[in-house]
Amino acid sequence: MSALVGVRVIELAHERIAFAGKLLGDMGADVVVVEPPGGSPMRSHEPFVDDLPDRERSLTWWHYNTSKRSIVLDWRCPEGLEALRVLLARADILIEAEDPGVLVQNGLDDAALTGALPRLVHVSMTPFGPTGERRHELATDLTILAGSGPAWNCGYDDHRLPPIRGGGGHGYAIGCHYAAMSALTALLHRERGGRGQRVDVSMHAAANVTTEMASYDWLVQKRTVQRQTGRHATEKRSMPSQVRCADGRYVNTGVPPRTPQEFGRLLAWLRELDLEQELPEAVFLQMGMERDRIDLSKIGTDDEVTAIFAAGREALVLIASRVSAQQFFLGAQRAGLPAGVIYSPEEAFEDPHFVARGMQVEVEQPQLGRKVRYPGPPYAFGKSRWMISHPAPALGQHTEEVLAEAGIDVARVRASGAFGRS
Amino acid sequence: MERRRALEDIRVCDFTGQLAGAGATKWLAAFGADVIRIEDPVNQGAWDILRMAPPFVDERRGPDFGCGFNNHNTGKRGITLNLRTARGKDLLAAIVERSDVVAENFAAGVLDRLGFGYEALRRIRPDIVYVSNCGFGHVGPYAKFKTWGPIVQAVSGLTFMSGLPDMEPAGWGFSYMDHTGGFYMAMAVLLALIHRERTGEGQWVDMACCDVGLTLNGPAILDYTVNGRPMRRQGQPNGNRSDWPGMAPHGIYRAAGEDEWVAIACRNDADWAACVSVFDQAWARESRWATLAGRLDGQDEIDARLNEWCGTREKFEVQRLFQAAHVPAAAVQKPEERIEHDPATAEFGLWPTVRHSKIGTVRVDGLPVRFSETPWSIERGGPCVGEHTEEVLTGLLGLTVEEVATLRKEGVV
User: Fold this and answer.
1) CB contact, 8 Å: B235 with chain A?
2) pLDDT value, residue A300
3) pTM of the model
4) Which of A70, A266, A304, A400 has the fewest CB atoms within 10 Å, measured from its CB?
5) Quick check: B182 contacting A, CB < 8 Å?
6) Residue A23 within a domain
7) Which residue, A62, A67, A58, A72, is CA-closest to A25?
8) Residue B2: pLDDT above 60?
9) What is the mean pLDDT of residues B81-95?
10) Which of A3, A241, A375 comes nearest B215 by C-beta?
C-alpha cells in the first residue's frame, strides 16, 4: 500500500505548486487539481506532443500532473466557491500558490479554512511569503533563482558572461520540495493527535537556504563566493574540475587523487592506456604513491606537494583527451577515482544503471493510445509503493465523479456556470 | 492555544553526514525530533569531512569547529560509539530499540558490514524506519561508484542543463543535489512514519541521489521519449532563456557596476507593452516585437538592447522600474545583499543565531516555512564530538555515570 492512500489533497491549479501535488499523488494521495474553466495556464506550456499546441498535449503538464484527478471549478463565483468548501471539508491537505490576498478576497480566509476545518493542513506557497513589503512583487522561476542566491553561484570563470540559471524549473522545484516536506510534517503531526494548521512557504526564502556555502561562508566569515566554470563557487579561485574528452563531451573529475592508493591506480590506468610516455609529469605520480596523503592546505606553498597534485590532474586531462567521456567515467570509477560523465537528460535516462534501477516507467497515455516512458521513482520504498497511478488528467476529466463523491448537486453547479460556459 | 512540536517523541538514530544526509535530519530536529548522531570515537567523527572544513569563526581548528557541520546539524545530540567493539554494538542495538528511525548516507553496504543492515535492524525493532541515501543507490551496475554533489549533478543531467548554448556546461556552482538529496531523505522518513502510523509496519527506503536528480528533468525526458528530441542538440541548453513556457525577452542582463546583474522575465505580450513604456525608446516600439513569435526570433537583438539599457542603471533600480510596471524582475543578489539587507529573508527569520558549546554564537540557515501551530525552532548548534554521550547513555539507556566512565576508559565511547 502506498503511504498516502486515502489522504485527500485539494490543489488549486498553479504552475508554481503543481510539482508538490505530483510528489504527494505519486505516493498514493488522492490529489484533485482544481482548474479554472478553460484549464490551467500550465496546459499551454511547451513542449507539446509533435509540437502541436493543445491543452491536452503539453508535456510539461503531463509530467507535473501525474497521479491527479482534474475538476473544473470557478471558485471565484459563489456556486463554485460553495462546491470548493464542500470538497475542502472532506480534505486532509490543501496546497495552493495563489498570490497573497487572493484567497481572502474570495471568501477563503484562515477562519474559513484551518479555523473552521481543524483537520485541514493548508500549505500556501508564495514567492515572498504572505506578509512583508516584497509580498506583491512578481516572480518567475528565473527571477526567484536570480534574487535568492543560486544564480550568483552559477556561471563561468569569465565574468563578462552572466550568472546562469540552472535550467529545468528549479526555483519552483525547491519551493515544492519544501511545500511537500511541510505538508508531510503537518500531516504526521495531525495523525499523531495534533490538529491541522496553516503553513506558509516562501519560494524566495527556500532558494536562499539552498545555496550551500554561499550562505554560510557569508554568515560565518562575511566571505563572498565567486562563480566558476563547472565547479563550486568559492572566494578564491580553485582548480578546474571539468574536462573535455576526445568525443567533445565533458566529464567532472571531482577532486584529483590525494592518497597513495589513488596515485597508484591512476598510474596503472595511464599505463594500461599506454600513455605514460606522453606525460613527463608521470614521475610525480610515482612520488604520490610513495608518500603520505596530500594535504590540500599545502598546495601552493610546498613545491613537491603542488607538483604531485598538479600531475594527478594533468594525467586525468591527458587520459580524457584520448577517450570518450563515457570511457573516462567508467575507467576512473573502476580505478576508484570519483568522476562523473556530464550526461544530457536523455543520456542519463538511457544509461544502463538507471534502467536497472527502474528509472524508466511506462504509463498508458490515452491521448496517444500507447505507452510513454516517464522518469521513475526518486526513492525506493520497501513497502510504500511509489507509482504513477494514472497519467495527467484531461481537463475536467473527473469533475462529475469528484463532485458526486462529495454529495454535491452536479446539475446545480453546472447551471450556475461554475464549470464554464460550453 | 496549546502548542507542541510537530515531531516530538520521534527519535532518530542518525549516521548521516555532509549535507545530503545531515540536511534531512536537521529538518526533523527543527520540528522537535530527538536526533542522536552516532559517531566514531577513534577518528573523532572525521567521516563527516565538514567537521574539520571551513568556514571557521576564528583560528581554532578541529572536529568541533567546522561551521558547515554546525550549519547542517543544529538541534541534534551527538554521541560516540566504537562499533568495532562488541559492547559498542550492544549499545547501538539498545539505541535502535528505542528509535523510530535509522538514517544514514554511507557508501552502499557500509552499515550492513557493521552488522546493522535492514534485516538486523528489523530484528532489533520490527517497525523501524530505515532510510539509506547514497549516490548511486544500493543496487545497479554503479552501486560501488563514488559520488559527491557535483558528480551526482553531472551524471543525472542537471549539470548539462545549466549553461549557455554550445558552450561547455556552467554547472551549478554548489552541491544543489546535496540539498535536494536531503529533501527527499526527509520526505522518505516522513512518508515511512506516516505509513507506520497507519499500518504499524516499518520499512527500508533505499534512496539514491542520482535517481532523484534524474527525476528533476521530467519535461526534457518526455520531449525525448514522446517527440524523440534530445536535449543534446545545437542551441541547447538555452541558458537564461525560456522555451518552456516560451518567454522573451527573458534573461540576466548586465547592470551598472562591477559584476552586477539583473533578471527580467517578460511573460507575454502585455508584459512586453509594459516593458516598452519602461524603456521609452523608439526601437522597442517596432511592431515586430509585439508578438511572442517576433520577440523569440529577435531575442539576440533584444538582449543586446537590454544589456545596453540596463548597463547604465543600478540593478535594484531596474528591478524597481520593472516591478512598478508589473513585469517580473529581480536583481541578482550577492550573499551580503540577500542575507543582510533583504526584508523578505529578514521577515521570515531565515538566519537564526545558535549557541554552539565551543564555537559560541553563530548564524545558520533557518527553514523557509512558517507553521501556525507547530513552528520550527533552531537554537542549539551542532554537537561537539561525543558531547551528549553521557547524557544519552544515562538518560536513554539507564547506564550510570560510572559505567559510562568505564566505557570511556575501554575505548567504547
Assistant:
1) no
2) 82
3) 0.97
4) A304
5) no
6) yes
7) A67
8) no
9) 97
10) A375
